[in-house]
Design goal:
Order of helices and strands: HEHEHEHEHEEEEEEEEEEHEEHEEH
Number of strands: 18
Distance between the termini: 32 Å
Number of helices: 8
Radius of gyration: 20 Å
Low-confidence stretches: 337-356
Largest sheet: 5 strands, antiparallel
Shape: globular
Helix content: 25-40%
Strand order of the largest sheet: 5-6-7-12-11
Strand content: 15-25%
CATH superfamily of the largest domain: ANL, N-terminal domain
């Protein structure tokens, strides 16, 4: 399986069925702690394996409806209503746009659980989902290659999956920092037998917390994760494209032809796709992905594919793979985080990234 490439680089991970079951159960456990039950009807926009043959069978058994991340938002709403979903799991950006559209139509969709994952859940996103789905989101922090790393309990605190992995917070030299101090997140999986991941760096920033939660969950606590923030991109039609959509542009190409990538938006109908090619680079696969972008952003959209030696990091050591040079004030919801967010990107920082 491959990671989603939220950092601008997708990685292929080898797993056997036993390891995959442990990873999937890690997600299920967090839902069970938050009130989810096997007989509840679930919809997910995150588990791409459900689209495969074995996944289709499992989705029937587990009463789960898979909604591909590239599904138009009108179709997403139709499926939710038709299936009468009771809880919803999906990439944070996709759930945020879905919630915005439900509120715009004046038709909120009450759920038992909404579980966003894959990106930092900012205050505006949380409030929008709360208003649209009638429940406080239970954020999941994880990675495809590791499964759930931490998840929110009913008190809103993030609990580590400490029986499945060792989570450390380290400084730039890889040394553990004191509890309560922020640093980079590194993980060692305890069930990754086929392809061990030891002190695996996720390019995210967080801290470990000393105080107990007070809920029934005994796992240790982690602070809010800073990182995984990318712009939502406005189109010429006036709607927004979720970052998660752009992680899947090569789904129909038989695999990604690039090692690293970054999208820069200069105007609603003008984007640059920077990429570092794979060793077995396939130009036809690249063109398929570029056409997916053109189709989503509308007729006449210009997409320049530019080969580069590497994709630069931000000054604080993270990789931002989706950057818009548009002014946020001209496009509501483009950057749904507040000015005080430590990981937020200012227009000046975006300009500095492009100039590197």
């Amino acid at each position: 399986m491959s990671t989603s490439g939220t950092s601008g680089r997708a990685i292929t991970i080898r797993r056997v069925p036993r390891e995959m079951r442990v990873t999937r159960r890690s997600y299920l456990r967090s839902l069970l702690y938050n009130g989810g039950r096997p007989w509840h009807r679930a919809a997910t926009m995150a588990s791409t394996w459900l689209a495969k043959k074995k996944g289709v069978i499992m989705s029937v058994i587990s009463k789960t409806r898979y909604i591909p991340p590239t599904t138009p938002i009108d179709e997403q709403i139709r499926i939710l209503n038709e299936y009468r979903a009771q809880y919803l799991i999906g990439q944070t950006g996709g759930l945020y746009l879905l919630a915005r559209e439900l509120l715009r139509r004046g038709k909120p969709f009450p759920l038992r659980i909404v579980a966003p994952t894959g990106a930092t859940l900012m205050p505006e996103m949380r409030q929008t989902m709360r208003d649209a789905f009638g429940v406080d989101p239970r954020d999941l922090y994880g990675a495809v290659e590791l499964g759930t790393i931490s998840w929110q309990c009913r008190r809103g605190n993030y609990h580590l999956d400490a029986d499945r992995m060792i989570v450390e917070i380290v400084d730039e030299q890889g040394n553990p920092v004191p509890t309560g101090q922020t640093g980079q997140v590194v993980c060692t999986g305890l069930f990754n037998y086929t392809m061990p991941l030891i002190r695996y760096k996720l390019l995210d920033v967080a801290s470990l917390l000393p105080a107990p939660c007070g809920c029934k969950v005994q796992f240790p606590l982690m602070g809010t994760v800073q990182g995984r923030i990318n712009d939502f991109l406005p189109t010429a039609r006036g709607d927004l494209v979720s970052p998660h959509y752009l992680y899947h542009i090569f789904d129909s190409a038989g695999g990604s032809p690039v090692k690293e990538w970054r999208i820069i938006q200069h105007a609603p109908n003008h984007l640059t796709y920077e990429y570092v090619p794979e060793d077995n680079f396939n130009p036809k696969a690249l063109e398929i992905g570029m056409n997916v972008i053109r189709e989503r952003f509308g007729p006449g959209t210009r997409v320049d594919a530019v080969r580069v030696e590497n994709v630069p990091m931000t000054p604080n050591g993270k990789r931002t793979c989706i950057v818009s040079m548009m002014k946020p004030g001209d496009h509501s919801g483009m950057r749904p985080w507040d000015a005080e967010a430590a990981a937020g990107m200012s227009q000046e920082l975006a300009a500095a990234l492009i100039s590197r």
